[in-house]
Amino acid sequence: MMTHMNELVIDQAVSYSTYRKTLNDLVESGKTTGPNQEEWLVDYTRLNVQRMNRWDKTWTVPEELEQQLLNIETPMIWLTITEGWCGDAAQVVPIVEKLAAVNPLIQHRLILRDENLDIMDQFLTNGTRSIPKIILMREEDLSVVGTWGPRPTSAQKLLDELKQNGTLPKEELYNQLHAWYAKNKGMEVAEEFMEEVRCQM
Known about the structure:
With 201 residues, the protein is an alpha+beta fold. It is 53% helix and 12% strand.
């Protein structure tokens, strides 16, 4: 894992609002992010935009976590590696954005995985390019102090169990995963991510 992020990467990273606008524009044009423009990926992106809209409108940072975020006194950059077609990213990234927005010392920036494979390959999960992956850095020297992703422990456990079953079609497998996210209401994403943040405070 790299210890310091390249300044150029941060300069090219975008805000959440810019990322969302890009996705909206792509979906309107029948496209998605990344080199693969197959129809099913565009359909996933369309669904993900709806999921993100829902989180943007309905999710609020719990008071206890808000206080912890306000206690952060070191300027931080949270860099999220993502893609528009990624279902987990749609469930996680809006929550990370809301957490970051609590404290003006925290910047949340986003880059696309397939445009930054050299970065992605420094932050693999069990040897795979799983996203979203959030990289926590100190702003002053871009030193990497922690990472989190691609999904909460309970969601990963559910996915592992469903895959072991081996009989479910991929579509049903992901339907069950997204049902878990909806039922959990963002709590495990927020709590587990904040656990990683607290370790760096």
